[in-house]
Amino acid sequence: MIRVGVVDDHPVVTDGLVHALHQTSDIDVVWIANTLADARHQLLSAGHVDVVLLDVRLPDGSGLDLLPGQRDVPPAFLVLSSWDRQQYSAAAFRRGASGYLLKDAPLHEIVAAIQTSARGGLAFEARQLVSLRSARTLTTREVEVVRLVAKGQSNDEIAMHLGIARKTVEAYLTRLFERWGLTTRTELALWAEREGWLDAGSAG
Amino acid sequence: VTAQARRDASIRAVEDERRRLAWDIHDAPLQELSGVIRRLDDVSGAEDEATALRSIAGHLREVATTLHPPVLQDLGLAAALEDLRERLAATSPSWEVVAAVDDRTNDRRPPSSVELAAYRIVQEATANAISHSGGHRLSIRGSVASEVIDLRVVDDGHGLRDDAARAARRAGHFGLDSMRERAEAEGGSTTLSSSRDGVTVRFRWTAGT
Question: pTM surpassing 0.80?
């Protein structure tokens, strides 16, 4: 069981996160702190946790100030932020965080990042640390979109084929490009082929 | 009340408002969207909706960042200028943009109003270079310490001829006056020098002067 502390001052975020993590079998949220001061108190007094999920902007200061500057002593600090600028993940990395994710990242990515952090690994996005391009998973829908791209279909055709809006197709592709540091559809198709995403029956 | 004091007050009022709006976007809709997206994780077949909402969150982040760069507030001026470089590289791919700003702040940063003025001046100077200089390389260099800031924005365009600069200023281009006013309001200075090899805009500030 991975013991987790959550530091975030927005109940709408912590409620959703705790509820979602509760559904996964190996993660136990043992405390929630709404301020930096509360987080420091919990870390000292609430018993051992393996991973702390940490927001950046807190009412009494920056969550980054909680980062230990080193990664060799537990708990691991996984930053969950509202901002997707690279400077944040770079700062988090320098200050000893185990990873950096957007708060609205898919649950499976957050769970994977918690598990990686608990094992002492790093969970930064691929474009931030290119060497960490392993540990990739795609959802079934993402695989569908990638396969249609590889067949040479346009966004309109893909949207028609899957019965979704073209903007949604664009959003999937933007996300895939960003996640894997790719810039063109051809690169995506080649990457997908190399990764085996185009094989029938492989859904990430 | 002098004209300068009124101008400074109005700049501050605008920036305060922008900061407040950016904070509101971050504090309410962005957090609520994260909560809704998280609940959709439980709903099978809702992945398209979650993806669409993530895209909306991305737009809101863009709006908030344009109003007031979060990196500036959270990480300081040097990181914010590196972030500006990344944004310029993304929005102006034909330009080669370099940022090399030495961060000497350690735990003490310059006052936030000075950081913001410096950021806005560099932002304006880079936007001018990209729109008007006719060059293709741009650099943001210098250093930031708690009591001294020295920054230069240099392009490799055709430079400003005096008559062109006067005409542009009359037409309200280049924002030279606004960059100067911005700097002076914080006790700093903005200077511009131009040659046939390009334009250099320099911002300098020292605490207590």
Answer: no
